[in-house]
Amino acid sequence: MTSTERRGWQEGRRDTTSLAEILHVLRGRRLLVVGAVLVLAGVALLLGLFRGPAYTAEAVVGFAPEQVPDDENARQALAQEVFSAVTSPQDFSEVVRAKASWRGTPEVFRDRLDPGVSVSEDGGMEMRVAFFGREPGEAARVANAYAETFAARALRLDDGQLSGGAGLADARVMRRAVPSEGSGPPALLYAALAAGVGLLLGGGVALSLEGRTGGWRDVRDAEVTLKAPVLGAIPEYSAAENEG
């Protein structure tokens, strides 16, 4: 086998790469490929496990004052006043947590809670509460507990607690929260996608390194490249060629 023939085969190898050659290269640099897959999949799995809550549940409470203001801004102010009067007492949050069997800290409870009031064009007032949980049942349970407690306490407001001296004529849960599907893919799916990216990345780096080295590492490498058995050892000509 002359150096000219060897260079010709190497040039052909660079131009056309078969599946067998690619698999052979990946096997030869399997530590690099496996390492890239494990690192990316592990990072994605951890991010998926420690990311924010994946489930959201929302409940709606409708309420109506005995005297509805004519001005839209006044109605919005009254709705906000009702909300503050009901939820401001310290024990309100405690009652909701106990009713929902919440086992976390009050700080986490507040962070995952998203209540608010709004006024419709026809003057209807409502309070919407959303809760973000790691489990669908937990999210729905807390949202419903909040809505039920709000409606019950809103009806007990004294006339003197609201501006104008008027209380509420009605307050009830209009829509209960139901367990919902997750807002994002599960952690295992993130890990699987990251593993695929790691395989492509590791394989690309392995092929790039193989292309830079040129030449055959051993008889097996030559057989895969030439697609034919090779008898004897393949001498390394690169050093002699460089010296010449």
From TrEMBL:
Annotated signal sequence range: none
Domain Polysaccharide chain length determinant N-terminal: 16-97
Location(s) in or outside the cell: Cell membrane
Chief location category: membrane
One Gene Ontology CC term in the entry: plasma membrane
Protein's membrane topology: Multi-pass membrane protein
Similarity section: Belongs to the CpsC/CapA family.
Protein name per Swiss-Prot or TrEMBL: Polysaccharide chain length determinant N-terminal domain-containing protein
Organism whose genome encodes this protein: uncultured Rubrobacteraceae bacterium
